[in-house]
Amino acid sequence: MSTNIVTSHLETDVTAEGKEGPISKSTYKWKLVWSHVFIMVFIYAGGLYGLYLFLFYCSWKTCLWTYIYGTISLQGVTAGTHRLWSHRSYKAKLPLRIILMICQSIAFQGHIYSWARNHRAHHKFSDTDADPHNAKRGFFFSHVGWLLVVKHEDFINKRKTIFVDDLESDAVVQFQRKHYFFLVILLCYIIPTIVPWYFWNESLSISWYTAAMFRHCVSLNAIYCVNSIAHLFGTKPYDKKIGAVENSLISVVTNGEGWHNYHHVFPWDYKTSEFGNSRLNQTTMFINFFAKIGWAYDLKTVAKELIERKAIRSGDGSKFNFENQHNSKAVWGWGDSEMKTEDIEEVKKYNKLIEF
């Protein structure tokens, strides 16, 4: 999942064009952008001190407020920027789009337009040089390093080909893009700091470092884990040839974004998972709630038969435990009643081209 640190600062990507020309695949080296490094050091240092205060000094009310505000911000990313605006896996009426835009601004991970454009590039060119956080460059790069270095020229060029007409015509997206700096300063930092101080007399210092800095740092790293861990450590039940993996721990910390192998195979499924709202997928429950009241609609998902067929053909076998259960869709050979019509026709067509 693609994010920027501070969109007002990173909106213009630093590339490696200059006297020596564009970076090629074979010569790409990490070149630090020091302004980005300083921003990230500020966020992490504040977050670590906030963790210390969170554990030992802040009141239970502030702890609860920090958790709730952080959860709200994550929904803006997962249900909003990711499933709605990046993948168009469902549609949302104006009130819900405004709510999601506000929640996403709390998260301060780059405005919707930039986030969604980068994420579409990630899916189109996953784990290649055109992927902004290519996991083949290792854990650190895919987790946070990609935000600190000069962008690969392949990414810059390929991102220009990404379809963004829908984002450019979305009034909510463009409003946030225009007023992003004001929105994030107010929603990400001022409001979470003022609430504990004003309503239950928490000190401004503790409020700032816990509800603002610590909460922001945690939400950033939760999403970063999808880019890194969910491309490196886990199973591949749906497609063993791609980098994305299933990781239930990541689903816990991201409200349901850890079923990543499935998501890369079926990116248009609003659940981002085969399991719906029954398996560590709070974001799906969030969307389902708004679907019931009519604010979310045209929810796209995938037929169970298609999922099983894909898992059998391309998965690593982890979806089925063959020692204890059988797959009802498996076949014993040619002529089995479970064979799909399209499979039979493909085999017949192919074999006509072969001379024995």
Task: Describe this structure as you would to a colleague.
It is a single chain. With 356 residues, this protein is mainly alpha-helical. The chain has one domain. The protein has 16 helices and 2 strands. Strands 1-2 form a two-stranded antiparallel ribbon. The longest helix has 27 residues. The radius of gyration is 22 Å and the shape is globular. The N and C termini lie far apart (49 Å). The relative contact order is 0.12.
Structural class: mainly alpha
How many strand elements?
2
Number of domains: 1
Order of helices and strands: HHHEHHHHHHHHHHHEHH
Strand content: under 5%
User: What radius of gyration results from the CA coordinates?
Assistant: 22 Å
Distance between the termini: 49 Å
What percent of residues adopt helix (DSSP H or I)?
40-55%
Q: Number of DSSP helices?
A: 16
Calculate the mean pLDDT score and round it.
88
How is the main sheet built?
2 strands, antiparallel
- Outline: globular
Write out the strand line-up for the largest beta sheet, numbering strands in chain order.
1-2
Query: Which stretches are low in confidence, meaning pLDDT under 50 for 5 or more residues running?
Result: 4-12, 16-25
